[in-house]
Design brief:
single chain; Rossmann fold; 5-stranded parallel β-sheet; 11 helices; 9 strands; 27% helix; globular
């Protein structure tokens, strides 16, 4: 008797969609996946409806790969629905794991986001100040939009998550490893990351010297020798605070790590860990004041999952 195929689902919440493309970037390995599993829900690629998922028995999906942060009422509803229907829920990509760039919206609230998007931008012509409403009655009936939340949340701040695979998008070898672990039922302990348990610095081939940071520079301001650690050359690199898995792709092409793989092993707050690393090699306390964009530098991918989480808005 032929073995029953596994049932796999994919979903895209608040994100750019790059994680959806990364699934296809495993190239011919996708054939191994479709040979062993049926895709029962993937709205971005196939015509599925939410009612199709609602009709499925609970825990009938063997594994769901959920990418994107939780920005709206709809995102949260589907996260809870897919959690109920799935045996394994994987936070797939930086937006789901840590909030990613979407999470930088936590520097504002819904009111200020709407004010900027629908009133202040130079190309906007909106004299009546109309903004999206959750419910609007027209002669044809009622139009409903999901509520837009003040605060961006990660997937694990919304539902229970079994496994994590960060990255913007996740590294292809780690995606393949994740699929293989699920297909062979050779899974790590719950709560594990499918990225390596080490930092970017452990993968980076650049030579680390006795760091002394007297001045912070942008990458275009240095004459890179292509061999020395970028921190040694005065460029902020998030490598010490970031989980490995990508093979240090950015430093290998002469760009500093920006931290997209999320907090490294034993790191609670990625931004604080990076700040601590820089403070430990700074030759004077004024060095940190030279950072042009502290939040965008240290919390570009992890603000929503940090101790800070969001800016306090005073009315």
């Amino acid at each position: 008797m032929e073995k029953e195929k596994l049932k796999i689902a994919f979903y895209w919440a608040a994100s750019c969609g790059g994680c959806e493309i990364a699934v296809l970037d495993i190239n011919e390995k996708i054939l191994d996946v479709v040979a062993a599993a049926d895709i029962v829900f993937w709205p971005v690629a196939l015509d599925f409806k939410y009612k199709d998922v609602e009709a499925m028995p609970d825990k009938s999906i063997d594994a769901c790969f959920f990418n994107g942060a939780i920005r709206t009422e709809e995102n949260e509803h589907i996260a809870k629905l897919l959690r109920r229907k799935s045996k394994i829920l994987v936070a797939f990509g930086s937006c789901a794991c840590d909030g990613c760039v979407v999470g930088l919206a936590n520097l504002w609230d819904r009111e200020t986001v709407f004010e900027r998007a629908y009133s202040e931008t130079p190309s906007t012509n909106n004299p009546e100040g109309t903004t999206p409403k959750t419910l609007l009655e027209v002669k044809e009936g009622k139009l409903k939009l999901p509520e837009f939340y003040d605060t961006v949340k990660t997937l694990s701040q919304t539902v229970d998550v079994d496994y994590f695979i960060s990255g913007c998008p996740p590294p292809i070898p780690c995606i393949i490893q994740t699929f293989q672990a699920i297909l062979t039922n050779n899974l790590p302990p719950k709560g594990s990351s499918f990225l390596p348990n080490k930092s970017i610095c452990d993968e980076c081939p650049r030579e680390k010297k006795d760091k002394q940071l007297s001045e912070i520079k942008r990458i275009y301001e240095i004459d890179d020798d292509f061999k020395t650690c970028l921190l040694d050359q005065g460029v902020i690199c998030m490598g010490p605070a970031t989980r490995a898995g990508c093979g240090a792709q950015c430093p290998n092409v002469n760009m500093p790590c920006t931290g997209c793989n999320g907090p490294g092993p034993r790191v609670t707050d990625q931004g604080a860990a990076a700040l601590s690393a820089i403070a430990s090699i700074a030759t004077n306390p004024e060095v940190i004041n030279q950072v042009v964009d502290p939040i965008g530098t240290f919390y570009k991918y992890s603000l929503a999952n940090s101790i800070l989480r969001r800016k306090v808005m005073k009315k």
